[in-house]
Amino acid sequence: MTCREFCVRRRRLLVICGSILILVAIVLVVVMYVKYGVDDDTKGTTKNLKTIVIERCREYIRAVSQMPSNNCDAIWEGFQNSFLGKDPCKVNVEDYDPFIRTVQQDIPCNKSLFWSKTSQIAHDFTKATKCFMTLEDTLLGHMMDGLKWCGQLHSKEFNYTSCPGWNECEFNPVRSFWRRASAHFAELACGNVMVMLNGSIDSPFNKQSIFGSVEIKKFDPEKISYVSIRVMDSLQDRTSCNSISLQDLGRILNNSRLDFDCKDIDKSEILQCINDPISQSCDCVNWN
Q1: At residue 220, what are phi and psi to the nearest 5 degrees?
Q2: Whole-number Å distance between alpha carbons of 151 and 159
Q3: pLDDT for residue 287
Q4: Residue 80 to residues 45, 53, 54, 74, 214: CA-CA distances in angstroms?
Q5: Residue 244 has pLDDT above 50, yes or no
Q6: Residue in 57, 131, 190, 282 annotated catalytic
Q7: How much is the pTM?
Q8: Are 141 and 181 in contact, with CB atoms under 8 Å apart?
Q9: DSSP β-bridge partners for residue 90
């Protein structure tokens, strides 16, 4: 074999290997997109929304034992019927009521965790320790987490071009869904519940947040025996539990006849349990 022939073969081999690697990368991206389904830059309905929601539904039911009977196709129908054909800025919270009723799941007592401005660490904590469940850990929240959707007035088609943002109009499809799902999650809470707040901001408790404006108003003192408030990483030289916003939270809970306590904790305590959930200090008993 001449040197020239060797170089040509080598170049062809490199091109083939490169093409295979690119193809594998594309397949992986498509698989991850279909499975987890979030394109943060999309302005309209998330692409492949139906496939994503139904696959998430089936995956959740397969993974979680002792789930009541749920029909993922019927759940999808109930979901899309909540907002299709409606002005995307006039989808009311109660429009999701029939859909909510199609999803059957009981939340065990002493398992509910509510969060505000602590999304990532709260979800990492529940995933690692299995001590609590956030809304996003339920079937309802798991199916819709990170997705975007809307329809069009007098049309049964999804709008893949443009959907209103969270603050663009009050009654947009995504915002109304999360308000309704959050209310439902709070209504199911019983026993001891945990609230995880962010002490690194001026107002760890915000009355305008989903927790402050929706969830806390649905706490039932006949079902909830205790509320454990945990405030992470308070600002330097300040105890967040004594801040004005936490005093407001305390008054709301007192007026609702709910017993509670508030503790400032270091973020490292949570991170330790995320990284080493079998540690004795991370036992679920210590967090209830």
Answers
A1: -105, 110
A2: 5
A3: 81
A4: 12, 11, 12, 10, 23
A5: yes
A6: 190
A7: 0.83
A8: yes
A9: 171
Helix or strand or coil: residue 191? Answer: strand
> Is pLDDT at 59 greater than 90 in this prediction?
yes
Tell me if 77 sits within 8 A of 57, measured CB to CB: no
Given a cut of 80, whether residue 18 has pLDDT beyond it is no
CA–CA gap between residue 123 and residue 138 (Å, rounded): 12
Q: How many residues does the chain have?
A: 288
Extract the tokens encoding 196: 């995880």
Distances from the Cα of 135 to the Cαs of 185, 187, 230, 261, 275, in angstroms? Answer: 6, 12, 18, 22, 22
How far is it, in rounded angstroms, from Cα 137 to Cα 117? 17
Known active-site residue 109: yes
Nearest to 79 by CA among 171, 149, 136: 149
Rounded Cα distance between 173 and 231, Å, is 31
Residue 45 pLDDT level (bands cut at 50, 70, 90): very high
Q: What is the DSSP letter of 50?
A: H
Q: Is the dihedral of CA 269, 275, 277, 281 positive or negative?
A: negative
Distance CA 166, CA 174 (A): 7
Q: Which residue has the higher pLDDT, 24 or 237?
A: 237
Whole-number Å distance between alpha carbons of 180 and 3: 71
> Higher-confidence residue: 171 or 283?
171
Q: DSSP readout, 224-271?
A: EEEEEEEEESPPTT--GGGSHHHHHHHHHHHHTT--EEEEEE-HHHHH
190 belongs to the catalytic site: yes
Residue found under tokens 């320790």 = 129
pLDDT-derived band at 27, boundaries 50, 70, 90: very low
Angstrom distance (rounded) from CA 61 to CA 75: 13
CA distance 112 to 194: 6
